[in-house]
Amino acid sequence: MPGIASRNASTPGGWVRYARLMQDAGADALELNLYHLAADPDRSASDMEARDLALVAAVRGAVTIPLAVKLSPYYSALASFARSVVGAGADGLVLFNRFYQPDLDLESLDVVPRLELSRPSELRLPMRWIAILRPQLGPDVSIAATSGVHGGTDALKALLVGADVAMTTSAVLHDGPARLRGIEEELVAWMVEHEYESVAQLRGSASQASVEDPSAFERANYLRTLRSWSTSRDLARVGGR
Q1: pTM to 2 decimal places
Q2: What is the rounded distance in angstroms from the CA atom of residue 35 to the CA atom of residue 10?
Q3: 43 contacts: CB under 8 Å, gap ≥ 6
Q4: What's the domain count of the chain?
Q5: For 29-80, what is each residue's pLDDT tens digit?
Q6: Distance CA 127, CA 147 (A)
């Protein structure tokens, strides 16, 4: 089973040093977890992006194993930046980094960490961008979906829009490692029912380049979205009778 090392560091030297150490320790691939908050008003978006691209290029020059970069969804021009990350040497992208938000303790007024597991609805953001980026980046760039994959249907959605990998952590933490078998069984059952012979056959068949209305991934009709909540509520009432 391949082992992929994931790394977050604070200095360029630290990124490169630990990347080499992980490769020497036997990692089959390396993920750069670009996790930082752009809170300095004196640093522009272009400054932050240039720093990240220089980091990717430096690590790429230091290791020979496959290199993936885990991005946040907050870059101002994500499609352009994703292509630049690949140009800097990344073999793949992981979408998206799930930032943990601090909370406030009302008794002590301390800023405290609060961990909440992901929910299936969180898959929609990476799914949207994978659908957009898959035809832009081509088949040679690997894309992994992360956040919101709790069942076989979630993994299917990620694969259908073009992901090569569907990552899950919260489902395993909540239900234990046996949940992985359940996810696989649900995925296989859907494929058999819909007469897909392989994952390769279904992968990308619902990307932006493949669906009947490609613009649907770039816009969300406000009224139709609101009506979807009303419809789901009415169906729930009917089912409860």
Answers
A1: 0.87
A2: 9
A3: none
A4: 1
A5: 999 998 888 889 999 999 999 999 999 999 999 999 999 999 999 898 999 9
A6: 10
| Omega before 99 within 30 of 0, i.e. cis | no
**Domain span at 235:** 4-240
Candidates 118, 122, 146, 131; CA nearest to 203 is: 131
232 is written with which tokens?
């789901």
CATH code of the domain covering residue 56: 3.20.20.70
Helix (H, G, I), strand (E, B) or coil at 72: coil
- Residue of 141, 10, 123, 131 lying closest to 69 (CA atoms): 141
Closest Cα partner for 7 from 56, 73, 80? 56
32: tokens are 């750069």
User: Taken in order 133, 138, 141, 143, is the CA torsion positive or negative?
Assistant: positive
